[in-house]
Amino acid sequence: EAVLAANESESIMLPGPAAVYHLTCRVDAEDIEAALRGCLLTISFDGNAPAVVAPLGDFFGTAPGLNPYRSLASGVLEDGTLYSRWVMPFREDVAIEVSNRTDGEIRLEGVIGIKERPWTEDSLYFHAKWRSEQDIPTRPLQDWNYMEARGAGRFCGVMLHIANPVVQWWGEGDEKIYVDGESFPGWFGTGTEDYFGYAWCDTALFTHAYHNQVRCDGPGNLGHTCVSRFHIMDDIPFTKSFKFDMEVWHWADTRVTQAITAYWYGAPGAQDNFPVIEPVLLTIPELPGPPRVEGAIEGETMRIVSVTNGAAAPQSGSWPWSRGTQMWWRHAAPGDRLVLGFEVGEAGSYEVLAVFTKAPDYGIHQLYINGEKAGDPLDFYHTEVIADEERSLGRFELKAGENLFEVEVAGSRPEAIPAHMFGLDYLRLAE
């Protein structure tokens, strides 16, 4: 256990020949995200320069903050316990240090699991190094270097944390891995989403033995995202050199901040290109919230009173919805109804304004306010997915408290496939 005031460190040295087989850690601080990024873990083997230099959370594969996941190499348990199962052999000794680079107090407790292990001519030192860059321009497109190494070793994985200020997808770029001086990458992937074990920029969280998405804020791809890929069964050996680049290929012209932790093993004398960590990088980037229309009653926040068929749920995406999210109804058929409840502060006569989504698979729908028809059925078909212009549904007497917005599937155009979908961005009331 250790209590570290600002700018304080705690270290321990253990003798070899042996190997660190297991690390666990629990962190307590007023700002846990700041603590996990601002507490630096350093591990040195046999008097060499540090082979592990990374923020505590990033080393354990979580950033920013505590994001539960259970992978083979590392993870975060539901109670906040961080664990690592990377095997770290050494011949003479290992020095482990944690340094508090934040302005607040950090309380740590953990376990270092060590077993005797002979050092042989085939033994390799474990490495985990971190790099970050703020405000990376997404235009022009560019390759961003994850790591380079010289000497012999085996590449074993990477964790990526990206701070994205817009809802558009950030990860279209391909991975390019050069082994032993290749002029063209021997490993040329098809994109970040595929390398990290999913596709179509899916925002769903997942955890597996070798690949994880432990955080994805949304709406869409706005906010902080943390993904990892561990090369355990498919580690990449090299004898002279190793280089890993990832394209920064974003759908928007913007700036992103990203950080990676690379995991690899190296023979004695192997070197890497990781720079000294600047203190300003040991912080969590602040990101803007999704833009919101003033006075909007967001469709995705309305209570689902009833739905006769299909599925109704919030949907986030890169379309210009208020807050980047809409209420989405799908898998319905003609005659089916969706009823949503929305709150009104004061009873009165209001003009009800609305923004809906139009798309190639959207239908024709009759709308109601408190059981009263809101005009004729509306056709929400369009050749592209768009947020339509704000329109008036008419004037209605609304009561204080919950009122009802109802949608009935009236049909669809022949060219609408699979048809009948519906999306509500927001309602807005004008007295």
What labels describe this entry?
431 residues, mainly beta, 11-stranded mixed beta sheet, 7-stranded antiparallel beta sheet, 3 helices
Average predicted local confidence, pLDDT: 96
Largest sheet, in brief, is:
11 strands, mixed
Residue share in helices? under 10%
Terminal Cα separation, in Å? 62 Å
Written description of the protein model:
The chain is mostly beta strands and 431 residues long. Helices cover 3% and strands 52% of the residues. It contains three helices and 36 strands. The strands form five sheets. Strands 2, 4, 5, 10, 12, 14, 17, 18, 19, 20 and 22 form an eleven-stranded mixed beta sheet that branches. A hairpin with a 3-residue loop joins strand 17 and strand 18. The chain starts with a strand and ends with a strand. The mean pLDDT is 96.
Could you give a quick summary of the protein structure above?
Helix content is 3%, strand content 52%. The chain is mostly beta strands and 431 residues long. The relative contact order is 0.14.
List the helices and strands and how they pair.
Layout: E1 2-4, E2 9-15, E3 18-29, H1 32-38, E4 39-45, E5 52-55, H2 56-59, E6 69-70, E7 74-76, E8 82-84, E9 88-90, E10 93-100, E11 106-116, E12 125-137, E13 142-150, E14 153-164, E15 175-179, E16 187-188, H3 192-195, E17 206-207, E18 211-216, E19 223-230, E20 236-238, E21 241-248, E22 255-266, E23 271-272, E24 297-298, E25 303-307, E26 311-316, E27 325-330, E28 337-344, E29 348-358, E30 364-369, E31 372-373, E32 378-379, E33 386-387, E34 391-398, E35 401-411, E36 422-430
Parallel strand pairs: 5-12
Antiparallel strand pairs: 1-11, 2-10, 3-8, 3-9, 3-11, 4-5, 4-10, 6-7, 7-8, 12-22, 13-21, 13-23, 14-19, 14-20, 14-22, 15-16, 15-21, 17-18, 18-19, 24-36, 25-28, 26-27, 27-36, 28-35, 29-33, 29-34, 29-36, 30-31, 30-32, 30-35
